[in-house]
Specification:
The structure is a homodimer.
Chain A lengths: L3 H20 L2 H8 L3 H8 L2 H21 L10 H10 L6 H17 L3 H25 L5 H23 L5 H21 L1
The first copy, chain A, binds a DNA duplex (18 and 18 nucleotides) through α3.
DNA sequence: GTCTATAACGGGATAGAC
DNA sequence: GTCTATCCCGTTATAGAC
């Protein structure tokens, strides 16, 4: 059974995905979580605290579904694993949509809220490194800086595609196709060195 | 001399770039524009009216500086023009930062506000077409669908890089470098067909 | 730990003078 | 058209009981 804190953070992810960070009302969050507003302040101190913990929660959850692998599934080639990992973030699944929406909100909120910047920058760095490592498994001889640049481009592109998807201008299948294309183009670039 | 309305909208663009849509306070806007709050409500009815008119103002302005070309400047090669046009959006210039920040705000607001989606989708489409046309001038033999996909990737990447830049995780020079890299990689992809 | 109040405040919006 | 003054509501945050 999830703890109270977790229960509130799950609700926060839902409310943020539904209303955005801008639209998050502590009272609505309380209702969604089935607790009182007072309890929320007891656990998270203030509005910013809610946001920060939600970001952390979302990251952990993404980590989980990104890393999770069915033990009986056939092993993936490095390239397949790279594609699989990136495409995980572009799915109609409710949990994925929530995570993407919340991530986008936090990103755009951070533009005007210094308190979130540091956490966000750190989380982004971790993500870029993961992707760079996956690229490195496809192209073991490529220099680290080249891998990092490609990883920064692919992750930034994924964020851009996510925003277009969520803001209704781009069907998720088209977004996936574009991302696959970018992976192909980047890998071809690494081939040439 | 700019009209009072224009003066207020210019101030609104500055304030939104500084505080975001959610952080926009009518009182602060009034101070920034050097007018009273009452006058703002007189001209724009309410907060939403301010936002709508400001977003329109920003689009018109971006149109202007993207299209403007010094008549005495040396003519650019197709590839230079492509790079130039895309890199215009990644500069420390105050007006550019304002527009990028406001655009990002618009994009992320649209995720939760259906009223903005249509305008945004239309503006995005126009932009993608422009970039596809520029790509076509570099590679006249490339098929239209290929050009469109590359243009969608480059513009989505630019939006993603902008967000990272504005949220403090990515220096603008690094963002420019990454974008240039993406252009190179995409053009190489068009070479191979 | 959790709830029910309610305090405290910020900020949108309006009235009315000039 | 423009300003000053102010009302009033929504929201965050806290106090105190259980």
């Amino acid at each position: 059974m999830a703890s109270r804190s977790t229960q509130i953070l799950e609700a926060a992810a839902r409310v943020i995905a539904r209303r955005g960070v801008r639209g998050l009302r502590v009272e609505e969050l309380a209702a969604e979580a089935g607790v009182s507003t007072g309890l929320i302040y007891y656990h998270f101190k203030d509005r910013t605290g809610i946001l920060r913990h939600t970001l952390e929660f979302i990251n952990d959850r993404a980590e989980r579904y990104t890393t999770a692998r069915d033990p009986d599934a056939p092993p993936l080639s490095p390239r397949e694993e790279l594609e699989h990992t990136l495409l995980l973030e572009l799915q109609e699944k409710e949990e994925v949509r929530e995570n993407s929406a919340a991530w986008g909100e936090l990103r755009s909120t951070a533009v005007f809220d210094a308190a979130l910047r540091e956490d966000l920058a750190r989380a982004t760095l971790v993500w870029v490194r993961e992707v760079a490592a996956l690229l490195g498994r496809v192209h073991p001889r490529a220099p680290a800086v080249t891998l990092t640049s490609a990883a920064e481009r692919l992750t930034a592109l994924l964020e851009g595609l996510s925003m277009r998807w969520l803001s209704g201008g781009l069907p998720v299948d088209r977004a996936r196709e574009l991302l696959k294309g970018a992976i192909a183009v980047e890998l071809a670039g690494l081939d040439r060195g």
